[in-house]
Amino acid sequence: MKKRLLVATGGGDCPGLNAVIRAVVKRASHEHNWEVLGSVDAFNGILQDPMHIIELTPERVAGIHVQGGTIIGTTNKGGPFTWPVKNQDGTWSTVDRSQDFMDRLRYQNIEALINIGGDGSQRISHKLFEIGCPIIGVPKTIDNDLSSTDFTFGFQTAVDVATDAVDKLVTTAASHHRILILEVMGRYAGWIALHSAIAGGAEVCLIPEIPYSIDKVMDAINQRIDKGHDFANIVIAEGARPIDGEMTYIESEEPGAMKMKLGGAGLRLSQELKDAGCTIDIRETILGHLQRGGTPNAFDRILASQFGVKAFELVLEQKWGSMVAYHHPNIVAVPLAEAIRKYNYIDVSSDLVATARGLGISLGD
Ligand code: F6P
């Protein structure tokens, strides 16, 4: 009987997920004759009745590395440790179904799992490993907020999309003599914002790692006006906040869902600028999920393929509880416990931040 491997994609999607799936299947089936299954919508495919798992044959995955999204679906709701159940009074609570999950894997003769996901998903991988699950993690996210890897795949494509947006907004800002604010994703880290602000040539970039002073942002705009310019471009991360304020978010009511939905930082900044006396016309753009959809760029296809091949090598070596990681120029294995230990914020004393400052980009401090 063929050995069976289960692959799942969890959390928000990102460009490159399909390239990982394809690489795992190619590596597992070419030389090693393993059967690869996909759990639909993260691990929920295993937990639902009837189970929703699909066979991932080499034919099924042919050419999918260029496609955005994930052919096996994803979700950031539910999971083995927080399965939503409806109470009699109509409210929702969550239950731990991790032992049931393990039983279902045994019932399906699944000998290994590869969990492709971000920070939240790798926390689940680690908890499953702790209860004896033979699991390997693959880091994905446009946010680049996982430490222990130089980059996650999906990030560079998101930066391309955000940079393209800055390029477009610069021309319309110049034509209309306006301030254009672009809000980008990234959760609690400013990676997409800072990279696209540098690549696109924004005048101001506001990131969660450096709470901003609206007076300093106004100073930057006024200095630019004094030099004879009548427009400016600002990139703001969704997690950015003023020195004396909180991140802008709404509490999600959805059962088993991520609690905080970030968003609104750009609109708030626009109002703060007006309140601070800015007389230039301001417009706001929220880039949103455009950063997550569509074809991965070449860098992300390659990184995702490297991660997929390496993840299967780790399955063969039975290095359970590891996550593949990019330590330039190598693809290595790091313990999941280490990978989830700390959030990957931008180091405010890094060369990246120094580059932004050196280019005259105001960081609002
Ligand atoms: O983690 C990826 C991400 O796109 C974040 O940048 C963003 O805050 C969040 O997911 C959005 O989640 P959702 O798709 O559930 O709105």
Structural features, described:
The chain is of the alpha/beta class. It folds into two domains: 3-153 and 296-328, Rossmann fold (3-Layer(aba) Sandwich), CATH 3.40.50; 158-292 and 347-358, 3-Layer(aba) Sandwich (Rossmann fold), CATH 3.40.50. It is 36% helix and 20% strand. The chain has twelve helices and 15 strands. It has helices spanning 17-30, 44-47, 58-61, 98-107, 119-130, 155-176, 191-200, 214-226, 265-275, 298-316, 336-339, 351-358, and strands spanning 4-9, 35-39, 53-55, 83-86, 92-95, 110-117, 135-139, 179-184, 204-206, 232-237, 249-251, 260-262, 282-286, 322-327, 330-335. The strands form four sheets. It has a seven-stranded mixed β-sheet with strand order 3-2-1-6-7-14-15, with helices on both faces. Strands 9-10-8-13 form a four-stranded parallel β-sheet, sandwiched between helices. It has a two-stranded antiparallel sheet with strand order 4-5. Helix 8 (214-226) links the parallel strand 9 and strand 10 (232-237). Helix 1 crosses helix 10, helix 6 packs across helix 7 and helix 7 runs parallel beside helix 12. The protein is elongated and about 75 Å long. The N and C termini lie far apart (62 Å). The mean pLDDT is 96. 6-O-phosphono-beta-D-fructofuranose is lined by residues 12, 76, 118, 141-143, 185-187, 238, 261-262, 292. 6-O-phosphono-beta-D-fructofuranose (F6P) binds at residues 12, 76, 118, 141-143, 185-187, 238, 261-262, 292.
